[in-house]
Amino acid sequence: MASYALRRLGTVLVILAVMSLLVFLATHALPASTAAMILGQYSTPETLAALEHKLGLDLPLWLQYWNWLRAMLHGDMGQSLVMERPVAPMLWDAFGRSAILALCAMAIVATVGVAMGVVAGVWRGRWPDHAVSIFAYLGIAVPEFYWGLVLILVFCSTFHLLPSSGIGNLSDGVGSYVSYLILPVITLTLTLLAHVSRLTRSSMAEQLDSMYVKVARARGLPEHVVIVRHALPNAMVPTITVLAQDFGFLIGGIVAIETVFAYPGLGRLLIFALQRQDLPLMQAAILTLTAVFCLANLGADLLYGIANPRIRHGGAVE
Amino acid sequence: MNDALLEIRNLTVRYPGTTAVRDVAFQLQPGEALGIVGESGSGKSSIAGAILKSLGASARIAGEIAFEGRDLLRLSRADHRAVLGRRIGAVFQDPFTALNPARRVGGQIAEPMVRHLGAEPAHAMQRAIVLLRDMGIHRAEEVAHAFPHQLSGGMKQRTLIAAALACEPSLLILDEPTTALDVTVEAQILRLLARLRQQKRVSLLFISHNLGVVRRLCDSVAVMYASQFVELGRVGDVLEQPAHPYSKGLLASRPSLRAASRGSRLSAIQGQMPSAPRPEAGCVFAARCPFAEPRCTGGEQSLILTAPGHAARCWKAKTLGDWPRLAVEGTDLGEFRPGNALVNTNRLRKSFTMRRGMAAWRPSLANRWPRFRYQPTQVAAVDGVSLTISPGEVLGLVGESGCGKSTLGRLALRLLNCTDGSVEFDGADVGRLSGTDLSAFRKQAQIVFQNVGSSLNPRLSVGEALERPLVLFGLAKPRERRQRVEELLEMVRLPASYRLRYPHQLSGGERQRVAIARALASEPRFVVCDEPVSALDVSVQAAIVNLLADLRDRFGLAYLFISHDLAVVAQISDRVAVMYRGRICETGTPAELLAAPRHPYTRLLLAAAADESPTAEPSADIGAGATGCTFASRCPRRLPSICDTTVPTLRPVTSAHAVACHLDPIAKQQCGTIATASIPP
Ligand code: SF4
Ligand code: SF4
């Protein structure tokens, strides 16, 4: 297991290093240099050269990369060109708000989605199964921002039950804060719920048809023991991997959802940076998203290792 | 009233459209062992399923299953559950999937004790370890804490038996418990079961397709055919003097562990079991029975007593003679004299990389700093095999699963490329062929697989499947193809009308015939038969083996006949090679190998197949076998100083008999001088 974990960690570090290089190089592929962007219309060849020197843009490429990476690792993400403020605090605030959204959605997907899948798998071919199937097809067939718009229409425009955009303030009370989260979180979860419940259903059904379940029943174990203690742990192994992949999907979804609900998180910040060509902000946001994505995958791999005895306990006894 | 432990009366199991079990009745006394023998689809497993109530919702069960005085069919679910695991233990066919992969073995054995006997988990765990020790497992504690994937198949089956016996049940149901295991392991498990039966005084209901296996364990046996018991009696009586023609046929068609002459054929039962039998319209076996006469199909046959305690479902049973032997015997072709080699493998080696790419970077903590090293793991599936096959010769290749015999077959056909060594076909190096030469080779060297279900494309009709090679090799003009297809079908003794059928409309034996016809379409000279009969029922096996022998004689085919079944191999082969973990340990004629086996592994195989001597096999020793003799970890004769360090080479004992063992006295003498002379400086 330790060797497995170390290997996974190694993989993640390599991916992060490559990503940072790509993000850095992307900067250089842009038409205008950073210095030119800062100076804007006031740029003259002299001021440009002076600023490039000041920013270290005249150094060899690898040295620039190294300096940039070192600064990043020290938490210095540079200065936003458009907002003219340091990137780091802005980014962390947005990150925190997005994290709340993502974690709430993930928690719901992991519990409700799995529960729906298990119910459908156990009552295969009967009404709970059909209900989950219909829900899942709707969830998978329609893109999530569409559900976002539908929810806004129903709950905000028609019934005025919930706020349609922005973020609540904790000082206005928890209720108000939560009311801002409800719609984005629900929208985020719909597609994933469908996905996770379908998958859990099929892996649960497969486990319930397996030989060891037949054997467990032949030992006179009650059905709930067979389901919870025998089938479920095995059914969860593929589900855990998919939950992690879905977390990546969720990060993509957040960018769209934050835009629909005007929620000031990392996704919106990224869109803003892209629209305004704010390079340092863009780099930091992309790198943060990548890091989160990789770490989520690392977490999933480790969980998978823990759930799967083949990895947790390697070789043969005998 | 009687004191039977289990009494089944009028048991009938119906599924929509078919009846799996019809009017079955038998008694099992305390401590008795009853075997139920039948081929797949005969309904034998449905009897176990009815007792265990594991048949699924579509099954309709009628009759009575009285167990310890109560009718199991009338118990509530909860009451029935209290009987399962507590009073009745069950062990199934496939030990590889019967253990929960996510839980420790010990916990799975302890669980029924905690549920049924209310034992403390820790105490139950202790009991589980004791039970494992009872099953002949030496490192019981370690095994109890292991996960299923860490155990071998035989070990898994032992733990499953332990779990079934955990609550000391009075009845153990065994549904083909050794079918998925290698012969040597099967012999061990059967001995274990025989011992447990004595020690624990448990009754056995043993379900199997194999009469021989039943003989080793049971007191009485019921032969099942097409949903009915057709014969019932003491094991000795039924096996020595079978009364029902089906039992006679089954026994006659089993290849014995004897070398057969080239002209001899197995007695086979023609045809196949009806899928929807109608006993009310007469004997269900009539279509395949050589003794059939009009009266047989006049009405339903009932079980009649032929001797005390011996009954058969055949009105003629008392007067019948032996199963007719097929009369090919006279045309004895004499011993095969090999000519020039057709196929020649030269120090053939194939290794697979088990771990590569990212996974091959093994981290290690050297000097407290983590380091990564690239260490791909190589496993040699075939390791330096040199074999020769002459035109018209059948070389049998025996060995247990995973020994590399199928890989060797694929290497010989260049379906896999070898890592080292070479294959020569008709003098040409197969590895160097390309273009038209390669296609000419493909035409002449074909393969028949074990898995008849998946080796035929379900979307192609038989005719289309047989036309493919004709088109591929440009062998027949479009107008002649149909005629050629019909010829091919005739060769494998299928009616020409089968051209239009699809694989799912064929039985296992018929599918295998089509697969053979397809291999023959290109008029090959060499065919690799990779376990061609292993997936078939005994009554069908014999017919296929005979067919292969006939085709060999008719077209002068050479076969590499791969099988795990020594008896089948001995029946058809001119020479046999025994393979163990990638290496050939002994070669010789079937007569030599069966009468005077020299290699310890061959002896083990033979003893297991015949179950004569209690082969006390030493527990596997992990360290051994890595650098020296591959069999060292299981060898009772092993001499560590040489066996663990030096790989034994095949050395001749007689002109056609060679053995790879350091300690073989004759082989040592014969080659002593050569061996010392050829040691490299
Ligand atoms: S009843 Fe007739 S057909 Fe049936 S087994 Fe007896 S002899 Fe054969
Ligand atoms: S070489 Fe040694 S270990 Fe191998 S079979 Fe012979 S005696 Fe046994």
Report on the architecture of this protein:
In chain A, 78% of the residues lie in helices and 0% in strands. Chain A is mainly alpha-helical and 318 residues long. Chain A has a domain at 91-278: MetI-like fold (Orthogonal Bundle). In chain A, helix 7 (144-158) packs across helix 10, helix 10 (223-260) runs antiparallel to helix 12 and helix 11 (266-276) runs antiparallel to helix 12 (279-307). The longest helix of chain A is centred in the last third of the chain and has 38 residues, at 223-260. The radius of gyration of chain A is 24 Å and the shape is flat. Chain A starts with a helix and ends in a 6-residue tail after the last helix. The model of chain A has no long low-confidence stretch (mean pLDDT 83). With 681 residues, chain B is of the alpha/beta class. In chain B, strands 6-7-8-3-9-10-12-11 form an eight-stranded mixed sheet, with helices on both faces. An eight-stranded mixed sheet of chain B has the order 20-21-22-17-23-24-26-25, with helices on both faces. In chain B, helix 8 (183-200) packs across helix 21 and helix 17 packs parallel to helix 18 (538-555). At the A-B interface, helix 1, helix 9 and helix 10 of A face helix 2, helix 4, helix 7 and strand 14 of B. Bound molecules: iron/sulfur cluster (2 copies). Residues 600, 629, 631-632, 635, 637-639, 643, 648, 661-663 of chain B line the site of one iron/sulfur cluster. Residues 245, 283, 285-286, 289, 291-292, 296, 301, 314-316 of chain B line the site of one iron/sulfur cluster.
